[in-house]
Amino acid sequence: PSPYEPLLRRSLGEFFPSLTQVPVAATWNGPSDRSVTGLPFFGRLGTQGNVFYGFGYSGSGVGPCHMGGQILSSLALGLDNEWTRSPLINGPLGYFPPEPIRYLGSLMVRNAIRRKEQAEDHGHRPRRLDVRLARFAAAAGKADKA
């Protein structure tokens, strides 16, 4: 269950008052699998040779799954073909800062977005710092309101 359920229920009730009493069947929470470019990427883990990966489906996993399956199966079979020569192999690498800066920065941006959107939702002007920090969400492929 998501620890954000009370916040989500409150927001749902504010946007759609007629849904305030409608029960929420389930909530979930987990890490976001978003790449910097918004494109998935694939590769082989280290020198092990038998461990392959595909990440960064960015919320659109259904469409790229066929392509990812072709890439991963070609890699696993050791083929040299259009799939194993794809520019999506072994990238993107190194765009985010190292830990713990990445984690702390993500918390700052996430909380700034929440404060900014809460101010906007209640007809208030958001703080300038929150507006500036929220712009960093684009680096993770997240869209902000205009």
Record the strand order, biggest sheet: 1-2
Count of DSSP strands:
2
- How many structural domains in the coordinates? 3
Largest sheet: 2 strands, antiparallel
Determine the N-to-C terminus distance. 31 Å
Characterize the overall form.
Answer: elongated
* pLDDT < 50 stretches: none
Counting H and I runs of at least 4 residues, what is the number of helices? Answer: 4
Could you report the average pLDDT, rounded to the nearest whole number?
84
Radius of gyration: 20 Å
In which range does the helix fraction lie?
Answer: 25-40%
The share of residues in extended strands comes to 5-15%
Structural class label: mainly alpha
Helix and strand succession? HEEHHH
Topology diagram in text:
Blueprint: H1 5-15, E1 41-44, E2 52-55, H2 65-76, H3 101-121, H4 128-134
Antiparallel strand pairs: 1-2
Helix pairs in contact: 3-4
